């Protein structure tokens, strides 16, 4: 397989960005959302521009994607309405870990008539239980958590030890960074989020 130079990739990227900017100008003016408002010449121009970019860079683009490449999308909807701690009280003292009102509201508002699985919507409320199940589950699941912790440690915390801890005393996910452990929702104060 032929190596692609950074210069070639940069050229492809710049052409695509320029084309995207041109196309976005129509969207900004509301033209794309209104049928038959893009002049036919501009529609042809857009189509020709895409074909030209692909043809000019066919070899470089084909080297980026192997011939046996299969593409599948795993979609997860992350609603604005979300949290990390249960909100539904089971009784005066305990929260209902199973009841996810954010999920129910999101499904009702956006996916009422769609076939969507609960794990395709991430509200954050199942994070504690999912982490606990994975850490107490099979080796494959425990390894997945360890790799995720290692990724977070390296990417965001300068390789400081990073650990996810489902704390059974307060039914919340705790995070240990370096030598400090606290509930995940209290870390926001440390990082001024």
Descriptive account of the structure:
- With 193 residues, the protein is mainly alpha-helical.
- The chain has seven helices and three strands; from the N terminus they run H-H-H-H-H-H-E-E-E-H.
- The protein has a three-stranded antiparallel sheet with strand order 1-2-3.
- A hairpin with a 2-residue loop joins strand 2 and strand 3 (180-183).
- Helix 1 runs antiparallel to helix 2 (40-56) and helix 5 crosses helix 6 (139-156).
- The radius of gyration is 24 Å and the shape is extended.
- It starts with 5 loop residues before the first helix and ends with a helix.
Uncertain runs: 31-38
Structural class assignment: mainly alpha
Mean pLDDT: 75
* Largest sheet composition: 3 strands, antiparallel
Number of strands: 3
Q: What's the arrangement of strands in the largest beta sheet?
A: 1-2-3
Element order, helices and strands? HHHHHHEEEH
Shape: extended
Spatial gap, N to C terminus: 45 Å
Proportion of beta-strand residues: 5-15%
Radius of gyration: 24 Å
Helical content stands at 40-55%
List the helices and strands and how they pair.
Elements lengths: L5 H23 L11 H17 L1 H7 L36 H10 L16 H9 L3 H18 L5 E6 L4 E6 L2 E4 L3 H4 L3
Helix pairs in contact: 1-2, 5-6
Kindly summarize this structure in a few lines.
With 193 residues, this protein is mostly helical.
Key descriptive features of the protein:
three-stranded antiparallel sheet, 8% strand, extended, 3 strands, 193 residues
């Amino acid at each position: 397989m032929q190596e692609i130079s950074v210069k070639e990739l940069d050229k492809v990227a710049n052409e695509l960005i320029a084309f995207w900017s041109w196309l976005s100008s129509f969207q900004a003016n509301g033209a794309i959302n209104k049928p038959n408002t893009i002049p036919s010449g501009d529609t042809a121009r857009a189509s020709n521009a895409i074909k030209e970019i692909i043809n000019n860079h066919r070899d470089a683009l084909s080297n980026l994607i192997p011939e046996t490449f299969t593409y599948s999308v795993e979609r997860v909807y992350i609603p604005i309405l979300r949290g990390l701690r249960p909100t539904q009280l089971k009784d005066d003292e305990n929260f209902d870990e199973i009841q996810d009102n954010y999920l129910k509201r999101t499904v009702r508002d956006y996916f009422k008539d769609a076939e969507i699985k609960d794990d395709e919507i991430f509200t954050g409320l199942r994070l504690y239980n999912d982490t606990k199940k994975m850490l107490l589950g099979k080796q494959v699941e425990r390894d997945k958590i360890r790799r995720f912790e290692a990724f977070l440690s390296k990417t965001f915390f300068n390789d400081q030890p990073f650990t996810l801890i489902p704390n059974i005393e307060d039914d919340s996910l705790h995070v240990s960074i370096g030598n400090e452990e606290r509930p995940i929702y209290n870390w926001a104060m440390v990082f001024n989020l």
